[in-house]
Amino acid sequence: VGSSSVLTCPPKSNRTMVTWKISPKVGGPCTLGYRSDQNKTDRTNCSNSMNWKFRPDQDPALEIQQVGIAHEGNYICEVVSTEGNFHETYHLTVLVPPRLTLYCDDHGNPVCEAVAGKPAARISWVLESSFTPREEGHDNGTVTVVSKFTAYSSNATNATCFMSHPARNQSNSIAC
Questions:
Q1: Lower CB density within 10 Å: C or N end of the chain?
Q2: Ig-like domain spans which residues (predicted)?
Q3: pTM assigned to the model
Q4: How many CA atoms lie within 13 A of 93 on its CB side?
């Protein structure tokens, strides 16, 4: 999320037409097209964040700027050339790194939260403990995971929480 993504088309010479067919999970479909005989580009229902990376007659790659969850979906590049018709299909999944927070609850137990990640993060603790993570889904498709540390032995003073996520791994420690 937040970075740019570039999707490429099949590298064929003598392209006569290139079409990007985009079907996001949210909102309606959009298309970007290029015809070499007229040296003409066309766009239908595409946001300004989606455009040709370079000139489509030289490289028909698609660039998505400031990728967001709304960009998730299917992207198909169709190339018509003198060699035949070719296509490349992408399924774009957007990762949102969660924010890790660690605090002590009213009973002096460490609580670890992986806030608003996509997909849901996994939480574990350095010392053995009993914990059951709880997940809370949000309207934008992100998930917050909450885990409370309960030590098996009462002499544990420091707790370290580990968050595992495809976009970021992180740890934090606290003494309650």
A1: N
A2: 1-93, 100-175
A3: 0.77
A4: 7
pLDDT in tens, 103-145: 998 988 899 999 999 999 999 988 766 677 899 999 888 999 9
Distance set, CA 15 to CA 59, 94, 161, 173 (Å): 10, 31, 54, 57
Sorted by where each starts, the structural domains of the chain and their CATH numbers stand as 5-92 (2.60.40.10), 99-174 (2.60.40.10)
Instruction: Kindly report, residue by residue over 51-72, the tens digit of the pLDDT.
Output: 999 888 888 999 999 999 989 9
What residue has token string 């002096």? 108
DSSP per-residue codes, 86-142: EEEEEEE---BPPEEEEEE-TTS-EEEEEEEEBS--EEEESS-B----EEEE-TTS-
* Cβ neighbourhood burial of 66 (10 Å; 0-12, 13-18, 19+): exposed
